[in-house]
Amino acid sequence: MNAEHGRIDLSLTAPSAAAPASAPTGGDGCADGCCATGTTTESTVDPRRRAVLTRRVRLLVAATITYNVIEAIVAITAGTIASSTALIGFGLDSVIEVASATAVAWQFSGADPAKREKAALKVIAVSFFALAAYVTVESVRALFGAAEADHSTVGIVLAAVSLLVMPFLSVAQRRAGRELGSVSAVADSKQTLLCTYLSGVLLVGLVLNSLFGWSWADPLVALVIAAVAVKEGREAWRGEHCGC
Question: How many whole angstroms separate alpha carbon 99 and alpha carbon 121?
Fold first, then answer.
């Protein structure tokens, strides 16, 4: 599931002269100016510091991709075995995070990452929408009796591990992305944070199904995943991932 994948506005203007120096305002209303397209904020970052932050983003993206590839394989395999729409959806979210992180990696591999910002954001948005479409269809099928989810010990362990790992990756990437003024890096970190929330929701659903046999909890959890994915996808498409 999602290295610095949340909420986005690609227009960031310099603070007006009338604005108080202690509370700069971006063109999108973000109080700390974190919603910049990168051109305004990046220009104020020392070149050496920018180089350090860029390398950090690359390393965090690589870590996110590696973890999510493993997570996707385990979740989709376990979900298929247990007929768990929520687990499969969680695994697909990991695939989405890989796509998102890869887009950010591509952006920062160029000489001028800011020029690739919008394209990276579009990839992130489309990946969210694809996830939402699949999970919604499969959840509705499951609710109408297509298949009942079985207990999955592997799924429970995976959700618990992700609940511990993902917050650290998200926070580190968001900090570096905000300092760089990179909206896509912040968006990718928010998607990683989304994975944390989804891990918690998934864990609750899987435990309820295992303890009480509430198989309906699984597709309901999956629908929550789909709803959040749509919200995040819309914000990514519009460029509204402030991350404040």
Answer: 11
Q: DSSP readout, 129-150?
A: HHHHHHHHHHHHHHHTTS-PPP
- Whether 201 contacts 20, CB under 8 Å: no
> pLDDT for 192-236, tens place per residue?
787 787 788 788 888 888 888 887 777 787 788 788 878 878 887
- Contact call for residues 12 and 33 (beta carbons, < 8 A): yes
Q: Which residue has the tokens 């247990």?
A: 82
CA distance 225 to 195: 9
Considering the chain, what percentage of its residues have pLDDT values greater than 90?
7
CA 173/CA 60 separation, integer angstroms: 6
Contact (Cβ atoms closer than 8 angstroms) between residue 186 and residue 171: no
- Whether residue 152 contacts residue 87, with contact meaning beta carbons closer than 8 Å, is answered with yes
Q: Is residue 88 a contact partner of residue 67, using CB atoms and an 8 Å limit?
A: no
